[in-house]
Automatic annotation (TrEMBL):
A Gene Ontology molecular function term of the record: structural constituent of nuclear pore
Extent of Polar residues compositional bias: 23-37
Residue ranges occupied by any Nucleoporin POM152 Ig-like domain in the UniProt entry: 452-557, 761-847, 1160-1243
Region Disordered, annotated ranges: 1-46
One GO process term, biological-process aspect: protein import into nucleus
Feature: compositional bias, Low complexity: 1-22
Domain Nucleoporin POM152 ninth Ig-like intervals: 1077-1154
Example of a GO cellular component annotation carried by this entry: nuclear pore transmembrane ring
Residue ranges constituting the Nucleoporin POM152 first Ig-like domain according to the UniProt record: 200-309
Protein name: Nucleoporin Pom152
Cross-referenced InterPro entries: Ig-like_POM152, Ig-like_POM152_1st, Ig-like_POM152_9th, Ig_POM152, Pom152, TMD_POM152
Domain Nucleoporin POM152 immunoglobulin-like span(s) in chain numbering: 561-662, 879-969
Residues in Nucleoporin POM152 N-terminal transmembrane domain copies: 64-148
């Protein structure tokens, strides 16, 4: 057993040895069993060698060491299996996490501290190792039992930061900034205050309303529990109908399910927040929370509350008729059912337009006394012995009677109904959701409101009677209307009227006592009652199928049957006074009937034809003169008569005869016709003579107030008067003055004939267009040439185009007309004639010139920079990037629209590299085309389209124009070693460096470089001329060099072509003119805090040697860059005393001092985590202690106390100040109090990840 390893103090045992004995060292040996670097582990006391054990607690002969280790490992695996089973049970059954956590911490402690006591080889770890293993297992126990996630990513990032994140500190050693910047020991302590809870339960905490109906058969009533976990709840239900009590007990099993559902619904709530249990009920009634029993078998005091479940309110519109008349009452009833007092909201719609919503409130039976009419709370029932019959549902009918002021479709629809408890049914939402469906029956009532008819009589009254022939009928002149704008269409009418025969009409014109009431139904507006019997007719009523109407005035009509017409004749001869013989017959007519009268008679001359005549007489007496113009025997037969009422009536045995020898007379055969005549022409008039010939006819011609008399002897009954030539224009009148017949009887005549003589002959000439008789028009379009005519239409015109000599003859009907010209040329008028006379052409306006507007043209003006070669224009070459353009000349009518194609041929590859088409608009006679010079090569500009204000582009009339333009590449220059720094001394010396450059282009070159001194606002320019090659060594004049670093950049280069290029900012070189180096602080302040970085800018040539002291100890540091930075690890005074760079051996003496202050600390509750329990209204103190430089300013938070599975939530953040090193603050509120940030006079510190917006270290200035 001597080979069994023994556990050393503070370490694991060594590997067991076999084959050689174990050497026991004396206490005075040099090699001790104490592990170096572990000051917290004491050495084992010295004991005699003989007293030491030689094997495990269980001897190896019973169970060897390997088997013991196997069984220990199997037991450890079993413990983990059990642990994971408890974790699974915790997630499923939501058991208590704290008990399980404590249980497994205890098991782990017993196992880890008990295993070394067995003294099994390889398992004999020290107490410190056992404690470390126990700590790891306890952390895993907390994470598992409280279900805290394992932050693997955070641990990995932290591990990498620990391994690789380090900086150089003032002591010239690498330190990790994390422990300095995030030193959690600066802020220690936490105080947890608990307020002992008081459980409660309340039914329906939000005073909600509930109801049941056919569609809602069950509801979930809420029970709010706070700070308690009930195991039994007792509910009492009062039946509304009979006040019967019914008790319901909710057992623990059902409550567990309700609690689980409540926790799932409130998954984001805090564990201490109240829970709402939802219990399902299916019966109406008043529910009371009678008793609540919690886990400790104690009753939780329920708050006084009640919940009423009633029948859901409902409403409907009672059905009525579908038709109404305008100005009737609506006569609609709403039936409401529910727990009163009720409120109903309904909407009236007229012809699809809503008139707005109306409502009735406080609807309840008159004899009902409901407590809900005075209270709005549901907490009305205090115990189970009250009368709740007032909550029963009642049915109430509300009548709606309003005047129907408009016609159309009226609809009453129920929108909402509310009961006294706040239950509401919204039928409008049902309509919106089920819009494609039919509306629920009873929820609305619609009917049609019809216009009322009216009627009156037109064109008939007792004062203006209606007269018709006996035995005929006539429609009663009734006119229909309505209360609307128009009469009612497509509706039958029923008309009632009174009739009194004419013999029975009273003396005052009213109906007699035996008046007859008649009713007739008219199918449409066109139908009217037919009347035939004379008498008085009066409309008494008018109606349609739906509405009765109103009779307007006049409403009475007097119908009369006048006597039939009769005629009596008497006659006498009309005697010629000169010859004493009859020349006609005068007939007197006496009538009976209704004027006007029309007499139809037939005149017949002996051996002649019958001629019918009609004579109208507008009174009861009249005369007719029967005086024929020719001599002979005449007979007259009167055949029929017509008056204002009766149609034609025949006359019997009414005839007259006479012998007529008429006196002489003459008349123009073309009487009433005005003749037209041309000037200097004569005119003829035909005259018909009557009587016994031969005759002497006298006539005169009147013109301009002058009369010319003529006397002619005429043998024949027809004579033609021919005038002399009418030499002056105007109106001539030819008047027959007298005629003398064979008997010498002279008769004076009145017949006249007129002739209008034209003052001038018709004329034709061209009008003007824009003041001239010439026009320029678009080629190919018709041109209307204006014509002017004088005379009388129509005009017949002949014209021709002089260029083609084709004569055209056209007839015109307007004095201002047009000729349509289709070809260019000069048009000439040849002759004209109007409807009466031949005319003439105005020679001054007989021609009109038509020309075509010139089409637009494009050209390129030639100059020294633009020449024409091989059918194209070639422009002088320019340099890449230079602005260039060329001009084009445009002729035509601006504005011009020009399209050109731009093509580019790369100079290096010789291939077409780009093509584009561009459009420009020019408002003048020329345009400037911007030439493209962005890339070197050959550009061609081909103008392919041209249009102006008059003409669109025509490929037929346009030839493309091409301009060729060459762009030379710009020169360029580059530094051979861009970015390199060239060293110079402050004084000129031999062997100084040159800056090699490469040039591109055609030599010789002209080069300008820019020297920019660091910190100088304006650079200096160095000019280099006539550089003969593309390789060049640049030398800078020493007078332009200054101490420090300057940047050399290329400003401009020009080659032999004259092309100049200014390169954009790009690679450059630097020159460094050395002098003694200097150090400048990057921050002006002199006070810093531990953990901050001291940064200095070094000027000179890298690397540098920096000399400084810290707390009186001198140090030297090498710095490879221009920034010297050190982390302030410890407080103290830091002074830079000297600086040396690599370009100079001189050491610059410096005295830059920075003071480093320590970070303040704060301790709450002495830096410990303490828990304090207080009662509601009690209090305690928060005790703070500080280190640092007063005054102190700190921020602390109050968070919710930690609950399993949930993170703490910050409730409030407070900031306090302290002038000393200790401070007490009284508090009374529950929560976890901890400090998150601290500041003193110089420095500050804030915890990371606290969610309070404070981080890093900040200085505090007062």
């Amino acid at each position: 057993m001597n080979g069994t390893p023994r556990r050393g103090p503070g370490g694991f045992p060594t590997t067991p040895q076999t084959g050689r004995p174990q050497k026991v060292q004396s206490p005075n040996a040099n090699a001790t069993a104490t592990t170096p670097g572990r000051p917290n582990v004491r050495s084992l006391p010295e004991v005699p060698t003989a007293a030491q054990k030689t094997g495990p607690l269980i001897p190896n002969d019973i169970l060897d060491a390997a088997s013991q280790r196997f069984y220990v490992f199997a037991f450890y695996i079993a413990l983990w299996a059990w642990r994971l089973y408890d974790f699974y049970s915790l997630t499923v059954e939501d058991d208590q996490s704290l008990g399980l956590c404590l249980k497994w911490c205890f098991f782990d402690m017993v196992f880890l501290f008990g295993i070394p006591l067995l003294e099994i080889p390889w398992l004999e770890w020290s107490n410190a190792a056992a404690f470390l293993l126990f700590t790891v297992h306890a952390v895993f126990d907390v994470m598992l039992m409280f279900r805290i996630g394992i932050p693997v990513q955070t641990w990995l990032v932290s591990l990498l930061a620990v391994l690789f994140d380090s900086e150089v500190a003032i002591n010239e050693r690498n330190v990790k900034p994390g422990p300095i910047l995030h030193n959690a020991s600066l802020i220690l302590g936490k105080q947890i205050i608990h307020i002992l809870p008081e459980g409660s339960a309340i039914l329906n905490p939000d005073k909600l309303s509930f109801c049941l109906n056919a569609s809602v058969t069950s509801i979930d009533i809420p029970i709010l529990i706070n700070q308690t976990q009930p195991v039994e709840i007792e509910l009492v239900r009062l039946d509304i109908d009979d006040n019967h009590n019914e008790t319901t007990v909710i057992k623990a099993r059902e409550l567990k399910k309700l609690l689980s559902n409540a926790k799932k619904a409130a998954k984001n709530a805090e564990p201490a927040d109240p829970l709402v249990l939802l219990y399902t009920v299916k019966k109406p009634g008043v529910y009371l929370l009678n008793r609540v029993l919690d886990q400790s078998k104690l009753e939780v005091r329920p708050r006084a509350s009640s919940l009423i479940v009633v029948k859901c309110p409902q409403a409907r519109v009672k059905p009525t008729g579908n038709n109404r008349c305008r100005h009737d009452l609506s006569d609609v009833a709403l039936e409401v059912e529910g727990t009163p007092p009720l409120r109903i909201k309904y909407r009236t719609t007229i012809n699809g337009l809503s008139r707005g919503a109306s409502e009735f409130q406080g609807l309840q039976p008159e004899d009902l006394a409901s407590p809900l009419s005075k209270h709005t709370s549901q907490a009305l029932i205090r115990n189970g012995h009250e009368d709740v019959s007032w909550a029963q549902a009642h049915t109430i009918t509300v009548s709606l009677n309003e005047t129907l002021t408009g016609s159309g479709t009226w609809e009453y629809a129920v929108e909402e109904v509310h009961d006294a408890l706040g239950n509401m049914v919204n039928y409008a939402l049902i309509d919106e959701e089920d819009r494609p469906k039919v509306k629920p029956a009873g929820m609305h009532q619609s009917f049609t409101v019809h216009e009322r008819p009216n009627a009156f009589l037109s064109d008939c009254s007792p004062q203006r009677p209606l007269r018709i022939a006996k035995g005929t009928s006539v429609p009663l002149p009734i006119q229909y209307g309505s209360t609307g704008r128009e009469a009612i269409q497509d509706s039958p009418y029923t008309v009632e009227y009174l009739f009194t025969p004419q013999a029975d009409i009273l003396l005052d014109g009213n109906h007699g006592p035996n008046a007859e009431l008649k009713t007739q139904k008219m199918k449409s507006l066109r139908d009217k009652p037919l009347i035939s019997t004379s008498g008085l007719y009066t409309i008494t009523s008018v109606s349609t199928d739906f509405c009765g109407g109103e009779v307007l005035e006049p409403a009475s009509c007097l119908l009369q049957n006048p006597p039939e017409p009769e005629l009596t004749l008497s006659s006498e001869n009309i005697v010629d006074k000169c010859a004493g013989r009859p020349i006609g017959l005068r007939v007197a007519l006496d009538f009976v009937g209704t004027p006007p009268f029309k007499v139809h008679y037939v005149e017949k001359r002996e051996s002649g034809r019958r001629v019918s005549h009609t004579k109208e007489i507008r009174s009861l007496r009249g005369t007719i003169d029967l005086a024929p113009e020719q001599a002979g025997h005449y007979s007259y037969t009167f055949e029929s008569i017509t008056d204002g009422v009766y149609a034609s009536r025949p006359l019997h045995d009414m005839s007259l005869e006479q012998d007529v020898r008429p006196s002489a007379s003459a008349r123009f055969l073309e009487a009433g016709e005005h003749k037209q005549a041309c000037i200097d022409d004569s005119t003829e008039f035909d005259v018909a003579l009557q009587g016994e010939g031969p005759w002497k006819l006298e006539y005169e011609i009147v013109h301009n107030g002058k009369r010319t008399k003529h006397l002619v002897n005429v043998e024949d009954p027809r004579y033609t008067i021919t005038t002399q030539k009418l030499t002056s224009g105007g109106e001539y009148t030819v008047a027959l003055t007298s005629i003398t017949d064979k008997m010498g009887c002279k008769e004076f005549l009145k017949a006249e004939a007129k002739v209008n003589v034209r003052h001038e002959r018709p004329k034709a000439y061209f009008g003007l267009i824009d003041g001239k008789q010439a026009v320029m028009a678009l080629e190919g379009k018709d041109v209307n040439l204006p014509l002017r005519f004088t005379g009388t239409a129509p005009w017949h015109l002949k014209y021709k185009n002089i260029d083609d000599k084709d004569v055209q003859e056209v007839t015109f009907n307007r004095a201002n007309d047009r000729i349509q010209a289709r070809d260019a040329g000069k048009y000439q008028l040849l002759s004209v004639r109007d409807g009466i006379c031949p005319g003439f052409i105005d020679e001054k306006a007989s021609q009109f010139s038509v020309g075509w507007i010139a089409r637009p043209k494009i050209s390129v003006p030639e100059s020294t920079t633009m020449v024409a070669e091989s059918g194209k224009y070639v422009k002088e070459a320019v340099c890449e990037g230079d602005d260039d353009n060329f001009e084009i000349t445009l002729s035509g009518h601006p504005p011009f629209d020009v399209t050109y194609e731009q093509s580019f041929k790369d100079k290096k590859s010789g291939k077409n590299a780009a093509f584009s088409k561009k459009n420009i608009r020019a408002v003048g006679g020329g345009a400037s085309i911007r030439a493209e010079t962005s890339q070197p090569g050959t550009y061609e500009y081909k103008f392919v389209n041209l249009a102006d204000n008059q003409y669109d582009h025509s490929p037929k009339h346009f030839s493309p124009v091409t301009v060729q333009h060459t762009v030379n590449p710009h020169p360029n220059a580059h530094f051979s070693n861009p970015g390199k720094t060239y060293s110079y001394c402050s004084r000129e010396s031999d062997g100084e460096e040159v800056i090699p450059m490469s040039l591109e282009g055609v030599p010789p070159f002209y080069l300008e470089v820019e020297i920019k001194q660091l910190g100088s606002p304006r650079p200096e320019v160095s000019v280099h001329k006539n550089i003969p090659s593309t390789k060049y060594d640049l030398k800078i004049e020493h007078r332009k060099l200054h101490l420090g670093t300057s940047t050399i950049s290329i400003r401009k280069i020009r080659d032999a072509r004259g092309c100049t290029y200014k390169p954009p900012p790009g690679p450059r070189v630097q020159i460094s003119v050395h002098d003694a180096p200097t150090a400048t602080p990057l921050e002006e302040r002199n006070d810093f805090c531990v953990g901050e970085r001291l940064s200095f800018a070094l000027s000179g040539q890298v690397p540098f040697q920096v000399y400084y002291t810290f707390e009186g100890q001198e140090r030297k540091a090498g710095n490879p860059g221009t920034t010297f930075k050190r982390l302030a690890e410890l407080p103290g005074t830091f002074v830079i005393t000297g600086l040396r760079d690599s370009a100079s051996e001189c050491l610059a003496s410096l005295a830059i001092t920075k003071e480093i202050h320590p970070i303040p600390t704060v301790r709450l509750s002495g830096g410990q985590v303490t828990e304090v329990d207080i009662h509601e209204g009690g209090g305690t103190d928060l005790e703070f202690s500080f280190t640092g430089t007063p005054p102190f300013e700190f921020m602390y938070t109050r968070s919710t106390n930690a609950v399993k599975g949930k993170k703490s939530r910050v409730l409030e953040i407070r900031t306090e100040k302290s002038e000393g090193w200790h401070l007490k603050i009284p508090v009374q509120e529950e929560g976890t109090y901890e400090v998150v940030s601290i500041k003193d006079r110089w420095c500050g510190f804030a915890k990371g990840g606290e969610g309070v917006g404070v981080g890093g270290q900040k200085m505090l200035a007062y």
